[in-house]
């Protein structure tokens, strides 16, 4: 395994309340947003994107409330590269102890042609003007090059150089459509690191969407290419197939300490906050979701259960307590073996020897074949019948 002495911080920029809330049906009221913002601050996110203030009076008000309330987290507001957007974002964020204006514009040829009907030079000028204006309100300005994933690297480097000169301090390189492969996204970051003068004084940021299921892999690849911030959402909520899942990137960096990065996240709060987000946004988490899915720490096949019961690390790379999940579960199905059956019966207080289990096991398999899962009440009945 590769080993580095590096121990560098990766900033976690949470956008559950902005990109996450864009999901149809996930709209939150101001109180729900404020509660969630407080939990995200407790979780340890470094920057919290609270909303898009110009988009509605309700969003303005909730960004304003969050800005007034948070104590340690940098509160951020989104804007397009439009004068009014930036001024409204600044007004919403004003009461914050520390705030960031996030502004930007599409840089891919597709965006330039179809969204803006503009030239590359005009886009660069609009980007410069937006950043300069935002700098009048704060010295913490993040610029996003929308659709950077499909922007050619040479032009992207020109845009990024221009906005750094204009005062941008964080450079967001979004893979807006989830198009990139990890090696391409990593190479994009490396290209910027190697070709943009002044980039060493700024932070490069990953903002990945999950259209091809690569958002987590791309974000980690982006960090390996030189980025030091990841933009993400709880449960990977976001437009279409979603954004990078916060819990996943944090645990990848946590598990692979050999990569040499750490975050400020209190991992024990990952499952509680996942449940909270799922509940208030009315978006169920898929059971097989990494880290926070209901089955993330369940074992149901005989081979796995036997190994797990001998030594948990044979089939678990994360201790559920580390991510605030319930204890690992041994689920009984028709694929389960004798050791799992004995374990579950023992948990109910039945001390059976090998011989008893050999007799009970075929009965168990018959029940299991009729049911998706053999539950506690089924075991109680089996044990009661066996006594007779
Ligand atoms: O995906 C994207 O490009 C965005 C930007 C607005 C940052 O969400
Ligand atoms: Zn996005």
Strand content: 5-15%
Radius of gyration: 25 Å
Model regions low in confidence, pLDDT < 50 over at least 5 residues: none
* CATH architecture name of the largest domain: Alpha-Beta Barrel
Number of domains: 2
The count of β-strands is: 12
Q: Reading side by side through the largest sheet, how are the strands ordered?
A: 2-3-4-5-6-7-8-9
Bound molecules: 3-methyl-2-oxobutanoic acid, zinc ion
Q: Give the biggest beta sheet.
A: 8 strands, parallel, barrel
Distance between the termini: 57 Å
Morphology: elongated
CATH superfamily of the largest domain: Aldolase class I
Round the mean pLDDT to the nearest integer and report it.
97
What class, by secondary structure content? alpha/beta
CATH fold-level topology of the largest domain: TIM Barrel
- Following the backbone from N to C, one meets helices and strands in this order, namely EEHEHEHEHHEHEHEHEHEHEHEHHH
Helix % is 40-55%
| CATH C-level category of the largest domain | Alpha Beta
Number of helices: 14
Could you explain how this protein is built, in words?
This protein has 388 residues and is an alpha/beta fold. The protein folds into two domains: 273 residues, Alpha-Beta Barrel (TIM Barrel), CATH 3.20.20; 90 residues, no CATH class. 43% of the residues lie in helices and 14% in strands. Helix 1 links the parallel strand 2 and strand 3. Helix 1 packs parallel to helix 2, helix 2 crosses helix 3 and helix 5 runs parallel beside helix 6. The protein is elongated. It starts with 7 loop residues before the first strand and ends with a helix. The mean pLDDT is 97. The site of zinc ion has 6 residues, from loops.
